Every structure is written in structure tokens, then in C-alpha cells.
Amino acid sequence: MNPARSLSRFIVGSMLCLLLLPAIAFAKSGSNDPIARLTASGSAAIWTTAVNHDKIALTVVGPDGSVFQKEFAAGVTPIFRLQDLGGKATDGAYTYEMRIVPNVSSAVRHQLAEAREAGDDVAAARIQRDAGIAEQMVQSGTLSVSNGAFIDPDATEPVLRQPAAAASSPGTVSASSISPPKKITPLDIVQADDVIIQGSLCVGLDCVNNESFGFDTIRLKENNTRIKFDDTSTSTGFPNHDWQLTANDSASGGANKFSIEDITAATVPVTVTGSAPTNSIFVDSTGRVGFRTSTPVLDLHVSTSNTPALRLEQNNSGGFTAQTWDVAGNEANFFVRDVTGGSRLPFRIRPGAPTSSIDIAASGNVGIGTASPSRNVTLNGASDALIGLNSAAVEKMLVGYASTFDGFDVANAGVADLFLIKRVSGNVGIGTTSPTSKLQVVGLPVFANNAAALAGGLTVGAFYRTGGDPDPVCVVH
């Protein structure tokens, strides 16, 4: 046992504060065991897997934020080439996520579709569980590129240790002073009492005499730094998960990151990658959370220079059809984007839209331009309440109340009035905006010979009763 482990109680107590760091809980992403073996060299990374699947969805994000996404059918080896992101390869860390899409029978898909149609989430979860697709199979990691080529993930780091004796000056080691690691003879130290250190503590194989601590109280110093919380509880009902604080991957080409790992469940619920910008996640004293801002003004506050957005992605690993939606806003509009459907924008709100442009009351009534709709749909305008009927972005007809006519009007794009009812008199006009009788038709041809073709294709004719005097009856064909 390392001699410093006799101070474990002190270290654990001191590091508890780290667990109070703000964190966001992410959904379980599956086992930490590798689903596929990664090999990378030159300009390509390849994943080899023996897991039965329908397809594999691969996403790679470059250090400049560029994104590569591709699905590989069963039997096709997932591969990522640097040229897949276009242009010259950028040196740095590339984060990848590989999601297994399982084989789902048509019967299960049909059952899931019925549960979704019925809005029965409980049934959907049960169907997924019974089919063995409730847990997602995901593998994520990091690829590193240096000088335009991938770094071999199987490479091992040379062992270069500082000598135990002091260097020529505190905290520095010259190249000539580096020597093979000193063999440390295990010598456990057991202290059955509290231990108090009125100074700083360095733990790790690279700690040296006269270590220069600066403001560090506790320092972990070697090429793999971990703090593990090993819970030895065995009694029923007592929590017993082991946790670990991990700084950086240990493999070649791995990620520069800080993670909180659930060792017992083999998951990594929280990770912060190296070079993440200041205030990537910020929790203020009131509990408000800021993303890229240290001054959140609401419960969740996202701040970015171009179109802050939220992506809602349902992947197809659970038996449902994949569908992705974006909810975002900028100076042009607030919108919902159907990413899967060709990035169409079925819903948009322009800046400056008035209050209650669309308002749904508790009764279910919908108001357009009013906060108190009295009918299933109530349309309210400052002077007119007209609905434009367009074809190919050209207005063809207006329907609604027009103040200029003081009544209900059906007009040909506001030019020719086709049908109008006066609000006060109740008179109905066809071809006129000022009917003087209950029904006034203007602009129709004069009848001749008991029959005439009227505007719009109507035909009016007359006939006589058999065996009697002429008794014309109007017939519209």
C-alpha cells in the first residue's frame, strides 16, 4: 500500500467539496465496456464490433465544432476519415459517439406505434423492456490528430519518472536528471488515529522532495491521477456504489477531460472536456443555470453569438422511428425546425409580433389577435378581420369582416367583391357592396327565351306544368 493511503480519511474529507460542483444529470448511456474495438492510424479510424445490430450510427465532432454523422448497415464496418469533415484536417481532439441500433421485429415496431398513437408511455416502456431494447448501447471516446494524422490509441507512454531526491531547483527537473523509475519497496503505514498535516500534501509517483506547492493544498502527481471513493457497505438497504474522480484518459490519443465515474454501474454520468470555455455551465446562488454565461436571469439561460438552440433527438435504438427537432431563435425569427424532414420550418414567430397573435384559452378556444376567444376560433383585427386565401404565394381571395364595407365580405384579393352581407341591414349583395334589398344581384345577364347562362356557369331555365296554364318554375342545373 502506498504510504499516503494512511491519510485516506483526510483526503476523502477534503475532496468531498468536489462533489458539490454543479453537474447536470444525463440519461444512462449504457455500459462503459467497449462495444467495438477502435484502431486508428494515418487518416482513418475504424471500429470493429461483434455485437448483433441492424445498423450503427456514428457521430464525430471535430475540435472546430464541425460534425460528421453517418449510419452503417449491418456488415459494413464503421469508418471515419479526416477528409469526411472536408478541407484540411485540424489537429486536436475529435469526440465520437457510436450508437448501436438493434434489430427490432416488425411486430414490436407495430406495438410501439400503437402505444405511441395512444399516448401510452408506460406500455411503450414495457414493450421496449420485453423486447430487450430498453437500454441503449452506446460507446463514446476521443480520437486525437497530430500533424494531420491519427494518433495510435494502442500506443504506450514511456515511463519517465523524476528521481526521489530533490532536483537542481525546487519544482524543476532537467532532462539529464531523468532516470528510470526507482523501485519502491511496499511499506504500509497504519495510523489508528487522526492525521493532521499543517502544510500541503503530494500524492503520486512523481512527487519529489522540496515540491513547490504554490497554493495547492493537495496535489496528485503522476501520469494517471484518480481519486476513488470505495464504499464497503454490505448491509441491505445501505448505498454501496463506488465513485471515482478521473482526470484525463490513460490511453494514447485519449481525451483531456475531467469525469465523475460511477464505478459500480460502469458509467460516466458527468464529463468536462479540456479547453471547454469559461462558464460552459454556471449555477448561480439562486439555482439558475447558465450555459456560456455567468449571469443567468432565468432558470435556464443559453447565451451564444449565433442562434441559441435546443435539439430534441429521438434516435432509432429504441424501436421507434428516428426524428429530430430543433427549437431555436435569432434576430430573424423564433422557430421549430423539422431536421429529419429536410430542415423545414413549420412554425415561426417573427420579432415584433403583437401580444396574443395566437392565444389558446383554457376552454380550448383559439384566438387570433385576441386573448379572450369566445368561439372555437376567434379572429380579431384592429379594423378588419380578414383571412387571405393564397395560391403560390399570391393572394386570391379575402374572407371576413371589412370595416370599409361594414359587413362580411368575400372579395377577389380586395379588388372585386364577390359576396357581401351588410352588418346593420342584413342585406345580401352579389357583385355589389351596397345592396338595397334582402338580395341584390348586380352584373348578371338579362334572361331571354326562358333560359340564360349566368356568370359562373349556372343555368336558369323554365318549364310548365303538364295540362295547365304556364307556371314557370326556376330550375338551377
Describe what is shown at a glance.
The chain has 477 residues and is mainly beta. The chain contains 3 helices and 33 strands.
Question: How would you explain this protein's 3D organization?
Answer:
This protein has a six-stranded mixed sheet, with no helix packed on it. Strands 4-3-6-7-8 form a five-stranded antiparallel sheet, with no helix packed on it. A four-stranded antiparallel sheet has the order 11-12-13-14, with no helix packed on it. Among the domains are: 37-150, Immunoglobulins (Immunoglobulin-like); 384-441, no CATH class; 450-477, no CATH class. The radius of gyration is 37 Å and the shape is elongated. The protein is built from three helices and 33 strands. It is mainly beta and 477 residues long. Mean pLDDT is 79; it is low at 1-32, 163-178 and 445-477.
